[in-house]
Amino acid sequence: MELLFPLLILALLVPMFLGIRRQKKEMAKTAELQDSLTVGDRVLTTSGLHATVVALGDGTVDLEVAPGIITTWSRMVIRELLVEDDEEFEEDDVDEIVDEIPDIKAPVEETPEETKRRLDNE
Predict the structure, then answer these.
(1) What is the full DSSP assignment across 13-39?
(2) Which of 78, 87, 91, 110 could form a disulfide with 114 if both were Cys (CB 3.0 to 4.6 A apart)?
(3) DSSP code of 85?
(4) Rounded CA gap, 118 and 109, in Å?
């Protein structure tokens, strides 16, 4: 009975200690990633935004979310660095993809009078 209380305390403290240790490792890894950012990196933010780093400040990072649209964010929102696959297609793969694309006919140009007639009939 005298050993029950110390074992209970130990059973509660060990998982808590291991959880805190794992959390510290994850935070250190994230901080290292945020410090190693360079211009041109593709990143993913904590909100799920995919963007390209265009400028770095002490505590901020400027992200280009679309061509010509740059926003300023805290460095702490960067969750991970995205690595793009640079797989090259072989000519056979490209031919297969082109064969799967349906034939799309170019739109026929109408004169304003033809358009008015067509819309009146509908």
Answers:
(1) HHHHHHHHHHHHHHHHHHHHHHHT--T
(2) 110
(3) -
(4) 13
What pLDDT, in 10s, does the model give residues 3-17? 888 888 888 898 999
In 3D, which of 23, 47, 46, 19 has the Cα closest to residue 34? Answer: 46
What pTM, to 2 d.p., does this model score? Answer: 0.54
Tens of pLDDT, residue by residue over 67-103, are 999 999 999 999 999 987 555 555 555 556 656 666 6
The amino acid at residue 90 is E
- For 5-106, strand residue ranges (E) read 42-45, 50-56, 60-66, 69-74, 78-82
Rounded Cα–Cα distance for residues 37 and 43 (Å): 9
DSSP tag of 41: -
Structure tokens at 12: 């509660």
13: tokens are 């403290």
